[in-house]
Amino acid sequence: QVQLVESGGGLVQAGGSLRLSCAASGRTFSSYAMGWFRQAPGKEREFVAAINWSGGSTNYAGSVKGRFTISRDNAKNTVYLQMNSLKPEDTAVYYCAAVTRNAFSGSYYTYDRQYDSWGPGTQVTVSS
After folding, report:
1. How confident is the model at residue 117 (pLDDT cuts 50, 70, 90)?
2. Which of 9, 20, 61, 109 could form a disulfide with 81 if both were Cys (CB 3.0 to 4.6 A apart)?
C-alpha cells in the first residue's frame, strides 16, 4: 500500500479558493488512480473527484463540477485539488485516497469502498 498525507486545508471566506495537496510515498504512485472525498459533521463521507493513473481522465461530483479541479504530478508523487468559488457547504474534512490493487485504472472509482489507501484528512472550513 501507499502512505498518503494531505495538506493545504484551512479557513477561507465564501467565494475564496484553496488548493489541497496529497503527498504519496512509494515508487508506484504513478500507476494508481486517485480520489478526493470529504466528510462533513454528521454526514457520510462523499465522493468529490477522481483522476486516472496518468492524469488524462477526471471525474467530479455534480456539486463541485466547474468549481474544483483535480490534477496530479507523478514526478512529485502528488495529487492536487484546486477548489474555487468555495461555499459554506464545502466545509468538511477532505481525504485523498488511492486504488492500489488495480494498477493503471481509470477515473471511474466513486465509492469509498473501492479505495484501499487513505490519508488522515485535512480540515476545510468556509465561512459565510
Report:
1. very high
2. 20
Phi, psi of 102 (to 5 degrees): -125, 95
Instruction: Check: CB of residue 50 under 8 Å from CB of residue 32.
Output: no
C-alpha cell of residue 114: 473501492
Nearest to 93 by CA among 65, 112, 121: 121
CA dist., res. 83 & res. 70, Å (int): 9
pLDDT digits (tens, 9 = 90+) for 25-39: 977 899 999 999 999
d(CA 123, CA 11): 8
CB contact at 8 A, 49 and 60: yes
Per cent of the chain over pLDDT 90 is 91
Within 13 Å of residue 11, how many CA atoms lie on the same side as its CB? 2
